[in-house]
Amino acid sequence: MAILSIITAPDSVLRQVSRPVVTIDAEVRKLMDDMLDTMYAAPGVGLSAIQVGVAKRIVVVDAAKDPDPPAPIRLVNPEIIWQGPVAGPHEEGCLSFPEQYEEVERPTQVHVRYLDENEEIRIAKATGLLAIALQHEIDHLDGVLLVDHISKIKRNIIMRRMKKMRRLQTAE
Ligand code: NI
After folding, report:
1. How many helices (H) and strands (E) does the chain have?
2. 99: left (phi over 0), alpha (psi -120 to 50) or beta
3. How many degrees, rounded to 5, is the angle at CA 99 between CA 94 and CA 102?
4. Which residues crowd ion ligand 1, with CB under 5 Å?
5. Residue 85 has what DSSP assignment?
6. Fewer C-beta neighbours within 10 Å, C or N terminus of the chain?
7. Ligand 1 center to 59 CA (angstroms)
8. Which residues 6+ apart lie within 8 Å of 47 measured at CB?
9. CA angle, 157 as apex, 90 and 168 as ends, to 5°?
10. From the CA of 136, how far away is ligand 1's center (Å)?
11. Which residues are catalytic?
C-alpha cells in the first residue's frame, strides 16, 4: 500500500498512449492497490495508470456515494463495447487538473469489457457517475484529457491556470 504522486497538466506524459497489459502479475496487482490508495487519498472517483507515470492500460474507479460502502473496481485493458443513445452533460474534474471543473457531454450509459485482477473477462454495464468515470479514465489511456472535450477558449483558460499553478509550485 502506497500513495503515489499524481502527474498534473501540462506534463506531456499525460498525452502518451498506454500499452495493453500482457500478464496480470503481482506487480500489476500491487500497482492497482496503490492506485486505489492514491485515488481515495486525493480524493477522487477514478485514476488511470498514466496519471502515476505508468503507460499501461490500467484504470481504477469507485463511484460509490456516501454512506454506501466502497466499491472499488480494478480494470485492465478496458474497452468501451457499447454506448447508449443518450448523451448528457456532467461537471467533471480530474486529479491531473486540480480544482478545475468543466461540463462535459458524454453518453449516459456504457458497457465496458475488461480483465479483472484475476484475469477474468468482465463486462461493466454502467450508468450515472460510474459511466462518466469509466469514459473519462479510458480516455486517459489514449492520452485524451478533460480539456479535449471543451471549447478552445475554456481549454486555453484552464491550461494557463495549470501553467501558473506549476510556476507557483516551483517557486515555493
Ligand atoms: Ni482524469
Report:
1. 3, 7
2. left
3. 60
4. 94
5. S
6. C
7. 10
8. 6, 35, 36, 38, 39, 59, 60, 61, 95, 137
9. 110
10. 6
11. 137
Q: How far is it, in rounded angstroms, from Cα 151 to Cα 107?
A: 18
Residue 70: pLDDT above 90?
yes
List the chain domain ranges: 12-171
How close is the Cα of 156 to the center of ligand 1, in Å?
17
Choose the CATH number for 12-171 among 3.60.130.10, 3.90.45.10, 3.40.50.150, 3.20.20.140.
3.90.45.10
| pLDDT tens track for 34-51 | 999 999 999 999 999 999
Q: Which three cell numbers stand for residue 83?
A: 454506448
Q: Which amino acid is at 113?
A: R
15-31 pLDDT tens trace: 999 999 999 999 999 99
Contact 7, 96 (CB under 8 A): yes
If you measure from the C-alpha of residue 12 to the centroid of ligand 1, how many angstroms do you get, rounded to a whole number?
14
With cell 461540463, the residue in question is 103
What is the DSSP code (8-state) at residue 3? Answer: P
Dihedral sign of CA atoms 17, 48, 134, 119 in order: positive
